[in-house]
Design goal:
The protein is α/β, with parallel strands linked by helices. The protein folds into 2 domains: 162 residues, NAD(P)-binding Rossmann-like Domain (Rossmann fold); 125 residues, Orthogonal Bundle (N-(1-d-carboxylethyl)-l-norvaline Dehydrogenase, domain 2), CATH 1.10.1040.10. Helices cover 50% and strands 13% of the residues. It is built from 15 helices and 9 strands. The strands form 2 sheets. The protein has a 6-stranded parallel β-sheet with strand order 3-2-1-4-5-6, sandwiched between helices. It has a 3-stranded mixed β-sheet with strand order 7-8-9. Helix 6 links the parallel strand 5 and strand 6. Helix 4 runs parallel beside helix 6, helix 9 crosses helix 12 and helix 12 runs antiparallel to helix 13. The longest helix has 29 residues. The radius of gyration is 20 Å and the shape is globular. The termini are far apart. The relative contact order is 0.10. The structure holds nicotinamide-adenine-dinucleotide. Nicotinamide-adenine-dinucleotide binds next to helix 4, helix 7 and helix 12. GO terms for molecular function: 3-hydroxyisobutyrate dehydrogenase activity. InterPro entries: 3-OH-isobutyrate_DH-rel_CS, 6-PGluconate_DH-like_C_sf, 6PGD_dom2, 6PGDH_NADP-bd, HIBADH, HIBADH-like_NADP-bd, HIBADH-related, NAD(P)-bd_dom_sf. It catalyses: 3-hydroxy-2-methylpropanoate + NAD(+) = 2-methyl-3-oxopropanoate + NADH + H(+).
Length: 299
């Protein structure tokens, strides 16, 4: 069975690496955080002390890192991983980064004879755990096809969006829309609750009405409405406000390059910026935007 090197074992990468071991792949894993490495070992990965050790003999390299800087830091430069990988290795970066950074990594890989695709994901931590992620790929069709078996072990939908960076464009469009319907959902649930409705009853009504959407149905932000979502756990785990702000920043940057109008996304970004002004809120799941709409007790 193919050997995979996996970098970045956080909220998403951890369960994704676990899906790969369940599917029978040999996974050598590296993360800067020792606690994440210990969990990866419990999930059947081989924990490694360095990038180089993890990458040894790997036919496929997967990264799930927090930023474009982290991705470029891993692959590029004199000490970068691309210098170590033999020609023909397949690199699959699943992080959400700019299309520009994805293209830089892809070009540098091509110069070394390494095949690289961007394959950001949607579905959140629940889909990462269940192995039902949606992958949006950018890169050569042959490289995307070569990655399919490994992506299928972590997800149920694999799309080829276009050339290098195209997966990232699809992903930021998705997260722009996600931020908009999450903030809208939080606003509507708060209005109904302030008007005396039970948020569970209101949710059930909206689920059968034209206001239904993914945030309402699968990631309800109002505490007590759904189990097993961050709102049920004090907004811990999940997808942090800091990462949502990163993605909305990427969307705004992209909009500037194509002179696209994104007023709703800009508003959602402003709301998240206000919410994330405190460091504590930056670490919470992005559905904690509900707290911005909540009235102080007794008012
Ligand atoms: P996270 O912060 O939970 O995990 C990131 C992990 O990367 C951490 O464990 C960190 O220690 C590790 N790391 C950072 N730099 C490293 C390096 N140079 N080498 C090795 N490890 C390194 O983040 P996450 O929520 O897992 O998100 C990861 C990526 O997935 C982000 O780009 C995010 O935008 C994207 N994403 C997240 C979600 C979600 O629901 N959390 C959903 C879709 C996409």
């Amino acid at each position: 069975m193919e050997k995979i090197a996996f970098f970045g074992l956080g909220n998403m990468g951890g369960p994704m690496a676990a899906s790969l071991t369940r599917a029978g792949f040999r996974v050598a894993a590296f993360d800067l955080n020792p606690a994440a490495l210990e969990q990866a070992q419990r999930d059947g990965c081989l924990p490694c002390d360095s990038v180089q050790q993890a990458a040894e003999d790997a036919e496929i390299v997967i990264s799930m890192l927090p930023s474009g800087e982290a991705v470029k830091g891993l692959y590029l430069g004199q000490q970068g991983l691309l210098q170590q990988l033999p020609a023909g290795t397949l690199v699959v970066d699943c992080s959400t980064i700019s299309a520009e950074d994805a293209s830089i990594v892809s070009s540098a890989a091509r110069e070394r004879g390494v095949r690289a695709i961007d394959a950001p994901v949607s579905g959140g931590t629940a889909a990462a755990t269940a192995g039902t992620l949606c992958f949006m790929c950018g890169g050569d069709e042959a490289a995307v096809d070569a990655a399919r078996a490994v992506l299928q072990a972590m997800g149920k939908k694999i799309f080829h969006a276009g050339a290098a960076g195209a997966g990232q464009v699809a992903k930021i469009c998705n997260n722009l829309l996600l931020a908009i319907h999450m903030t809208g959902t939080a606003e509507a649930l708060q209005l109904g609750t302030d008007q005396g409705l039970d948020p569970k009853v209101l949710t059930n009504i909206l689920l059968e009405s034209s206001g239904n959407n993914w945030s309402l149905a699968n990631y309800n932000p109002y505490p007590g409405v759904m189990e097993n979502v961050p709102a049920a756990k004090g907004y811990t785990g999940g997808f942090s406000v800091a990462l949502m702000l990163k993605d909305l920043g990427l969307a705004m940057d992209a909009a500037a390059t194509s002179a696209s109008s994104t007023p709703m996304g800009a508003l959602a970004r402003n709301l998240y910026q206000l919410h994330g002004a405190s460091e504590e809120n930056q670490k919470l799941d992005y559905s904690s935007i509900q707290n911005m709409f909540r009235r102080p007790a007794g008012t």
